[in-house]
Design brief:
alpha+beta; 143 residues
Length: 143
Amino acid sequence: MSWQSYIDTLKTADQSGMVPVAEAAICGISPGQESVWVSTPGLANITPDEIKKLGSTDRSSFAQNGVYIGGTRCRLIRDQMDLDPVYALDLKTAADAEGNTFGVCVGKSKTAIVIVKGTKDASGGQLSSKAFNVVSHLRKSNM
């Protein structure tokens, strides 16, 4: 399966018939090789430093300081990144110019993180379900 096909899968309708994912990215987290492997245009500017922080085992500053994804500040909602089989962070973006906030889920496999940013009406559960499916597949592939 190509990396782009994972993004295409993330951007399909869920069981409710809604497409909850507006933007998605898959990034490598191996030390010294942090990079975006594939993304939609809205997440193409994720930096290696942001990837390194998201993939790190030390997320102690996230609750107080938040974390940045593609230059957008996000606040931590729930950290289950070390909880088997979840391996995910639930985040919420800072308000944009129109006052809108968006849910973000970051899932982690052995060598990659999967980032999904929701549409305005998407729930955190819809996003985490989408991320979980891709991360589960990557983990089964030992990635």
